[in-house]
Amino acid sequence: MDDRAREERLIVETGVEKRIADMIEPVLEDIGFKLVRVNLSGQNGLTLQIMAERFDGTMTVEDCEEVSKAVSPVLDVEDPIDRAYHLEISSPGIDRPMVRKSDFYRWKGHLLKCETSVLIGERKRFRGRIIEADNDGFTLLRDGVAYGEPSEVTIPFSALSDAKLILTDELIREALRADKLAKEKAANENDEDNGVEDGGVEDTEEN
What we know:
Elements lengths: L14 H16 L2 E9 L5 E8 L6 H18 L7 E5 L10 H6 L4 E10 L2 E11 L3 E6 L9 E5 L3 E6 L3 H22 L11 E5 L1
Parallel strand pairs: 2-3
Antiparallel strand pairs: 1-2, 3-9, 4-5, 4-8, 5-6, 6-7
Helix pairs in contact: 1-2
């Protein structure tokens, strides 16, 4: 198994969503994927969204179908949801949730919005560019700083409750470039052409 598969998520679910995440995460890792997020919403009656990606950060429509086929039997047997629901498998997309330390290393230099569980400099919500990241936390060069406030803020990973990249032209270019390189590498390793896919793909089915 790829070592990156064992990297724990900083932001995890609670309640039924956590139970589902605990069920499917080992299944995903066994077939070469890592879990990003599990979310239950009232969309289309009730929708269970499982957001995942390969260890290299790619996720195609075919990958979504593979994940769906792998997790559906587990969900059917364990039956964690007590009523009918739609199962949606998707990639993180370009403006992705940031759930692992490696996400902050990987997307250093890009804009982020985040929330913390405790006050940091009298605030819990921040927006800015990631300028540094280490094992303990990350530093943002903040957007829209009020007069007298520091332009930089360092946020410990232990205080993070939510984080997501902000969609910019720069981010789109970088995400597509990285996606293309990852797919070319995979194609070379497998001696076949897997094509190039954008982020944000999904596969849905009804349970």
